[in-house]
Amino acid sequence: MSGASLTTAILGTAMLWLVSAALALALAGLLAWGSTAPSRPVALGARAAVNVFRGIPTSLYVIAAGLLALRLPGGAPPALFPGTDRSFQIVALAICVALALGSAGHLAEIFLAARRALGRPRIEAIRVLGLGAPARARVVAREAAPVALAPTGSRMVHHLHNTAFAGLFPVVEVYGHVDAEANATFRVGDAVLTGCLVYIALSAVVWLGFRLAEQALTPAVSGPEPPRPWSSTS
Amino acid sequence: MVLDLLIGLPGDRPGGLLLSVLLGLGAGAAALALGFAYAAACSAGRAFGLPLQGASALLRGIPLILLAFGVAELVSVPLALAGLLALTLYSLSHTGEILRGFLAAYPAENAAQARVMGIGPIREWVTLRIPHVLRDALGALQTHWISLLKDSGALVVIGVGELTTTAKLLTDRSADTGYWLGVLGLAAGFYLLTTLALIAAVRRIGGPVGEH
């Protein structure tokens, strides 16, 4: 297996993950915010979107996005994805959007669960601070982050695995590389083993990153925690 | 087209949604049985538990799409069986951990009480421990089963003939964008409806999740 092309494939997977994960997190934040909006139509629309996004397999999103992008007329976007031909960069970008749709519903559910875990008294306490909506959302996000980071990390590992669907199209990433190497060399075992090791290592990096963020954001507890001013027992 | 998506293409039946459901049910049931064995082995002691948990963690690091590709290429079995095997391994790596966690939380006093009442260990597992753990873990298992049904779409890489593969084969037949968007939309709708049916079925079996 050629080292250079495997490196390019790893970079391709990393870029697919980065772009699609950023899109997924942004969309999930929007859906979670919409689900808790005071406006009933907005909340219902956001809930419906969450359920639809969660109910459809990522593989279908990727196939639809890839086929659509293949039919788009010319105009190549900037080369974001290493190794992928310039003419298929738009396909890679469309696949990122598809991957984001596949994860956004799950992430929105995680964010909502973490918000619920804060408890109504804490949410009310943040509300009475008199902050504007964006500042209030930032405070809620900061408070809920320690709860949300572990399941978000798990989902992001799953999201990394979903980038393999890009291998169904001419986009350079690890699964496509494994498939191509297996077909070219007939050393299927070697190709699959290399792919497994790469994905395990990448998964470990993602998992570790989220664990470190979780540790950094979780307040250290030494001795009994003082009662919070908004605690229901105080 | 609708019939093809539901039961597979002519000459390749059962396929489509029916095969997706059969594969999901088969893999889910096999993983549940093996998951209990895994959880029991892990609870037996660190000598068993640590290597098993390490292997499970490594398995969870491998994408299903690569697992399916590897099993189909390296194990000489029919494609549907290879798909089932890959799905089972994938499901086991998640189900086993879910059950391990809930088994560890099984109240020790229940086991002690069973011993006092003269209930043997095997009967205690079958009549008390397994139902208790299943009831507690139902919410987490439901989430995993929904994911499993949708993830069966990853078997498109080995061409098993389940719903995603059938939809992809149908889209290959026409260059008309409206036609294949319709096919993919219909397949998405079938997945969505099946997911909702699965949620309703689990609720009916176990009561509303979290309310036991």
Give me the secondary-structure topology.
The complex is a heterodimer of chains A (234) and B (212).
Chain A: H1 3-35, H2 40-55, H3 58-70, H4 89-118, H5 120-127, H6 133-162, H7 174-185, H8 188-217
Helix pairs in contact in A: 1-2, 1-4, 1-6, 1-7, 2-4, 3-4, 4-6, 6-8, 7-8
Chain B: H1 2-7, H2 16-44, H3 46-60, H4 64-74, H5 79-104, H6 108-116, H7 121-151, H8 163-172, H9 177-206
Helix pairs in contact in B: 2-3, 2-5, 2-7, 2-8, 3-5, 4-5, 5-7, 6-7, 7-9, 8-9
Structure description:
The complex is a heterodimer of chains A (234) and B (212). With 234 residues, chain A is mostly helical. Chain A has a single domain (3-217), classed as MetI-like (MetI-like fold, Orthogonal Bundle). Chain A contains eight helices and no strands. Chain A has helices spanning 3-35, 40-55, 58-70, 89-118, 120-127, 133-162, 174-185, 188-217. Mean pLDDT of chain A is 88; it is low at 229-234. Chain B is mainly alpha-helical and 212 residues long. In chain B, helix 2 (16-44) runs antiparallel to helix 8. Chain B is elongated and about 70 Å long. The model of chain B has no long low-confidence stretch (mean pLDDT 90). Chain A binds chain B through residues 52, 54-60, 63-64, 67-68, 71, 157, 160-162, 164-165, 167-168, 175, 178-179, 182, 188-189, 192, 195-196, 199-200, 203-204, and chain B through 58, 60-66, 69-70, 73-74, 146, 150-154, 156-157, 164, 167-168, 171, 177, 180-181, 184, 187-188, 191-192, 195-196.
Kindly list the characteristics that best describe this protein.
heterodimer; A: 0% strand; disordered C terminus; B: mainly alpha; elongated
Instruction: Name the chain pair whose interface involves the most residues.
Output: A-B, 34 and 34 residues
Q: How many strand elements of chain A?
A: 0
Which regions of chain A contain 5 or more consecutive residues with pLDDT less than 50? Answer: 229-234
Report the CATH topology name of chain A: MetI-like fold
Structural class determined from secondary elements of chain A? mainly alpha
Percentage of residues in helical conformation of chain A: over 70%
Q: Averaging pLDDT over every residue of chain A, what do you get?
A: 88
Q: Helix count of chain B? A: 9
